[in-house]
Amino acid sequence: MSVHLHWFLPTGGDGRTLVDRHAYTDNGTGRPRPALPAGVRAPDVEYLAQIAKAAERLGFEAVLTPTGTWCEDAWLTTVALSQHTERLKFLVAFRPGVISPVLAAQMASTYQRLTRGRLLLNVVTGGDSVEQRRFGDHLDHDRRYARTDEFLRIVRGVWKGGPFDFHGEHYQVDGGLTALPPDPLPEIFFGGSSAAAGPVAARNADVYLTWGEPPEQVRRKITWIRELAEREGREVRFGIRLHVISRDSARDAWAAADRLLDDLDDATVAAAQQALGRSESVGQQRMLALHGGSRDQLEIAPNLWAGVGLVRGGAGTALVGSHTEVADRIEEYHALGIDHFVLSGYPHLEEAYWFGEGVTPELASRGLTGPAADAAPHVPAPLLVASGR
Q1: What residue spans of 187-265 are helical by DSSP H?
Q2: pLDDT tens across 207-241, in order?
């Protein structure tokens, strides 16, 4: 099976440094700064359109769009960007705890028609209670996953076209429906590393998405989800979320990685680690364990660099190396069973070109990619459910 390559839309800002929520607020208090820090690019529609157009031109199938306090709204941003592109699909993130499942199903159906089938839904259960409460969600970690399970059952139910009733612990729906269901129905991607997440993935996911851990850890996670899915009489496919720093030579790539850390002092790293350490997300704790908050030995597996996770929540690892080396690592993950690669890099515009012009041709020469995006027939995109950015 061919690999599916996706890129990322930095709707929280972009730049030549590791940009995260600290870039927009005063010491994490939540108060906006009067101006963006030097080197940070605002996520306005003009800049995001540049990235979207580049991703489409370079053959990426879709772009992942995050959700949260520090991002622009994913639905509104991507429907605007759909008017600047022709084939590119959008992985629109949202959280089950802050929207009705019937309304979400209706919004997705409308979006599919408006964009002619270019929507993917990234359903984010959420692993940070502080962030969840900010949006009015006060459930604990495991109950959030139980609610996601009900949420996805309702979405599928109302997409059948007739009145759908559901009476569970978290939702009570009488006669829910979408008057015009999407055709075809979107597939479902899901991510989560906790014991509560696994069964939800097994029952609902078409594709299970993991953050970029070393290959052996990814292999064990794939085995775990496959066994759970088999008990449900289902099959699940797999994807991975990674940053990339790919250059003509390995030396240049590692130099670029080092430069990302140059403007991060120890106090900044320590503050970020303290904040991230409070997360309830098992996936986030696994990311932190890869580096332990130290700048030493950040290459945790061949060409797998954990430096991003020193200050950034969610996906914290990057593939770093020459174009050939990065292609080698993608091929290695693909051999484990990974088909979908959701990638990003700082800045996202420039790194899209480094990867698209360097690594993608290498993958094509190995027979790992399908037809070029501009030659491929239009197929409506899958629904993506994930646990973070």
Answers
A1: 197-204, 215-231, 250-262
A2: 899 999 999 999 999 999 999 999 999 999 999 99
Residues 227 and 273: their CA atoms lie apart, in Å, by 33
Other beta carbons within 10 Å of 184: 11
Burial class (CB in 10 A: 0-12, 13-18, 19+), 335: exposed
Note whether 387 and 86 are within 8 A (CB). Answer: no
Q: Residues 364-371: contacts with CB within 8 Å, 24+ apart? A: 366/327, 366/331, 368/2, 368/3, 368/327, 368/330, 368/331, 368/334, 369/2, 369/3, 369/5, 369/59, 370/2
Question: Which residues on adjacent β-strands are paired with residue 90?
Answer: 63, 119
b/e map 227-238, b = 16+ CB within 10 Å:
ebbeeeeeebbb
Read off the amino acid at residue 280: E
Look at residues 287, 330, 327 and name the one whose alpha carbon lies nearest to residue 307.
287
The DSSP annotation for 72-118 comes to --HHHHHHHHGGG-SS-EEEEEE-GGGS-HHHHHHHHHHHHHHTTS-
Q: CA–CA distance from 150 to each of 12, 78, 144, 269, 329 (Å)? A: 30, 26, 10, 38, 37
Question: What value, to the nearest 5°, has the Cα angle with vertex 196 and ends 191 and 199?
Answer: 70
Q: What letter represents residue 170's amino acid?
A: H
Verdict on whether the full-model pTM lies above 0.70: yes
CA distance 102 to 156: 10
Mapped onto helix, strand or coil, the DSSP state of residue 355 is helix
